[in-house]
Automatic annotation (TrEMBL):
Domain Fe/B12 periplasmic-binding: 31-283
Organism: Sulfitobacter pacificus
Pfam families listed in its UniProt record: Peripla_BP_2
Signal peptide start-end: 1-20
Listed InterPro entries: ABC_Transporter_SBP (IPR050902), ABC_transptr_periplasmic_BD (IPR002491)
Annotated SUPFAM superfamilies: Helical backbone' metal receptor
UniProt protein name: Cobalamin ABC transporter substrate-binding protein
Keyword vocabulary terms for this entry: Signal
Amino acid sequence: MLRALWFAGALIAAPVAAVADTPERREPPQRVVSMNLCTDQLAMMVAGEGQLLSVSYLASDRRSSAMVEQAAAYHRNHGLAEEIYLLQPDLVVAGSFSTRATVDMLGRLGIPVAMFDPAYAVSDVQDRLAQMGEVLGQQGRTSALIADFEHQLARYLSDVSMRPRAALYYANGYTSGDKTLAGQILNLAGLDNIAVEQGFGAGGVIPLEVLALAQPETVITSRPFPGASRSEEVKDHPVIKTLRRKHPEAAMTDSDWVCGTPFVLRAIEDMVALRQEMQKADP
């Protein structure tokens, strides 16, 4: 109770500070807090020794995070302004869809916040790494990470002559087209995305009947969450089971697909392996 009253008083007395996309500073920040799953992982890759204090609780969720083991070394936060303020950060990194109330309150408390947009394309990986290097003052680290990412990505830029047709199918019947990170992962792996054939350039809900008539050679679904979910029941529909019968292993590893980080290379590699298995089974 006393902590809550003290925090409220501090908020009333605090000067209003602008929330900047890339805070200008002469020295690199020494006490950094991340409150977004994707900035968590970028910050853990880029931050110097002792520079990063806290990451969001989602960084410890194996369904979403590709860096669970690394996240164990940091204090966890739940994106609440009070808990972040008490850590006394000199910089907070957040996603553009992070809790707006928290971001605005931190700005009013005079704490700089660097905002990161989601990655909508594989090419955004380099941009997000470079942005994190800039705000943390770790440009040397990010230059090396970007060079390594581009070197590894080059392996997937050659044309594939035979491209199996695949569908991405998520909860509520949602699909992703080629103007999304997931769609580009498919494309780089040598798989044609039937969502594009059906007019879903960015994404949307694809009716089950349309999916069935498109007859993709495989359907790639997300891994189910524990417990029951009506939104995920459609992935167990007999039509989906029939389409997946020949390649039931085609399930994406969500943690490698979610954020625009170098871990998308693992997602591409998984889809390349799937394509090769499909081509062996259907010469």
